[in-house]
Amino acid sequence: APIFAPDLSQCGDANVPLRKSPGTNVSVHCCPPVSTNIIDFKPPRFTKTRTRQPAHLVSPDYVENFKEAIKRMKALDEKDPRSFTQQAKVHCAYCNSAYEQMGFPSQDLQVHNSWLFFPFHRLYLYFFERILGKLIDDPDFALPFWNWDDPDGMTIPDIYVDPLSPLYDAKRNPDHQPPVLVDLDYSSDKNLPRDDQIKANLCVMNSQMVHGTTTTTLFHGKEYRMGYSPDPGAGTIENGVHLSLHKWVGDPSQPLKEDMGNFYSAGYDPLFYAHHANIDRMWNLWKNGLKVPHCDFKDTDWLDSSFLFYDENANLVRARVGDCIDTKTLGYDYQQVELKWLEYEC
Ligand code: C2O
């Protein structure tokens, strides 16, 4: 059976493992407001496709709109499920065992390290984007993506580093500010010369998107059905560039590498959503953008897995994996940019 959307009234404190003392957890309260009226998601009709653009290439007008939208989201009452704080908590609740599996209270619900990774984060960003669009009265608003797979996008995008901007987050590694290049295979600082870092990054991209992902499971992660223990196994991208950048951005001097370096806090950094937009773009590219097209799972346990999100009107919505496998039905797509890693020999 599929993993069903959780019962929000059963949400408990999330557990965040303490790095320095393994086996001990800190409790974090990140449950959403409860609503008993649940609507089944139907993709709304769109007249125009929203195009997500690379964050380092957006226009000044776009940036002003985007900042205004995030500012308004941060200004909403904390109890509003659409507020920035509540949106960040969505990630915490789904990632740090605040929910149990429906029908299997002894098993935690976890959206990482399995085939739920890509669809959960796609839907999460979809609702986040729709809320922002609503707040600035622009139904065509699209999130930017952090184009870290392109040499020109391999630093934290400038729009996120101005301390006075609502896109800024103080809890980031101070040693990784622009012009320092990202390390897509990060565990500790290697301080490679610029060209070598670019080559190493393109090589990582090629192996995690092309060579290393010949099967659906290698890309998406392992199957995770009702009653299964969490974390059966992540796909190449989730385990690779995805985690590397979380660690690379988070502040090592914070107790739990906040914000990006820990699942419970990652959503508090506006950069998280641009990072995950690029992860989401990788799913589209893997399916249709490479030389060989790939297929998603056809398994109904995957397609019928579901999650709950609050939409732009603060209604509680149940969305299935099967609702999100094509971004065009969700009304958005990604701007095409050259893929320098596609043919990259390493
Ligand atoms: Cu839900 Cu990048 O993690």
From TrEMBL:
Q: Where are the bilayer-spanning segments? A: none
Tell me the cofactors it needs: Cu(2+)
**Keywords attached to this entry:** Copper, Disulfide bond, Metal-binding, Oxidoreductase, Thioether bond
Q: Which positions fall inside the Tyrosinase copper-binding domain?
A: 112-129, 269-280
Family assignment? Belongs to the tyrosinase family.
Write the protein's name: Tyrosinase copper-binding domain-containing protein
Q: What is the species of this protein?
A: Hibiscus sabdariffa
